[in-house]
Specification:
Layout (H helix, E strand, L loop, with lengths): L1 H34 L6 H14 L6 H13 L7 E5 L1 H4 L4 H5 L4 E5 L5 H6 L1 H4 L7 E5 L2 H5 L4 H18 L4 E5 L11 H17 L3 E4 L26 H16 L2
Parallel strand pairs: 1-2, 1-3, 3-4, 4-5
Helix pairs in contact: 1-2, 9-10
């Protein structure tokens, strides 16, 4: 009887925690919609909150990580590589090897990752490769999932702490959040997050911040549509040309 009571209590606590999490997200979604003058029904808010709650789970991208493990079994990654990791803008960088030649690089971007996802899978997607340097792009999805810039930066600090602890002396290059057409409503939050990273990099010789924001703007100060695919979020070949020039320069100055 005691065991049953304990189990029921654990189920109740887990359900309550999940309910509270979704309820908090609903409030944030409603506030964000109001901020952007967007009307959302209760059903739309609820559905979005449930998805964001699931998306924030640490093991959301376990399938992608398992695929990396299978690739590594088939072909051992080279030594002394520069590791690129983070979210989909890294994952979709199909010309990465050519763009970074003759540097030896490995692409381990996955899904629409949050920084917390990279942290959770740190051993699999970072430490195990023992890279000589890391290029990191992540954080924009965190903000889109309604995490605050401070919360997102805190997750980055966790990531950087793990790099310094597990890969002593490894240089980290962070590509700042890019301006986009699809997420123009997040400009304030994105700039705040970028400033936090930039300020930290100014104090730490192992950390380099790459500002892609300004080079991706039109003369009118808007995200340049010629750099993006149709979704207005991910960049096209021309966009990657901009990134290549900036990232190569950062690598060569390490």
């Amino acid at each position: 009887m005691k065991k049953l009571t304990s189990i029921l209590l654990l189920i109740f606590l887990a359900t309550t925690a999940c309910s509270n999490s979704i309820s908090d997200l609903e409030d944030k979604i409603e506030a964000q919609a109001a901020k952007n003058n967007v009307e959302m029904s209760y059903a739309e808010i609820k559905k979005t909150a449930i998805y964001l709650d699931a998306w924030s789970k640490e093991d959301f991208y376990q399938g992608a990580i398992d695929e990396f493990k299978e690739k590594d079994k088939a072909t051992s990654p080279p030594k002394n590589l520069i590791l690129f990791t983070g979210s989909s803008s890294i994952r979709f960088w199909s010309s990465l090897k050519e763009d970074m030649a003759p540097h030896s690089v490995l692409n381990r971007g996955f899904g629409g990752a949050h920084i917390a996802h990279v942290n959770y899978h740190f051993n699999e997607v970072v430490r195990n490769y023992n890279p000589k340097a890391i290029v990191f792009f992540c954080g924009t999805n965190d903000l889109a999932a309604l995490k605050s810039p401070a919360e997102t930066f805190s997750d980055f600090e966790t990531f950087y702490s793990m790099v310094k602890k597990e890969l002593t002396g490894t240089k980290l290059i962070v590509i700042g959040v890019k301006p986009t057409i699809a997420r123009e409503y997040l400009i304030k939050e994105e700039k705040e997050f970028n400033n936090l990273i930039s300020n930290l990099a100014a104090e730490d010789d192992l950390l380099t911040y790459v500002n892609v924001w300004d080079p991706m703007l039109t003369n009118e100060g808007k995200a340049d549509p010629t750099l993006f695919v149709e979704d207005g979020l991910h960049i096209n070949a021309k966009g990657y040309e901009v990134w290549t020039k900036l990232v190569r320069s950062a690598i060569e100055n390490l």
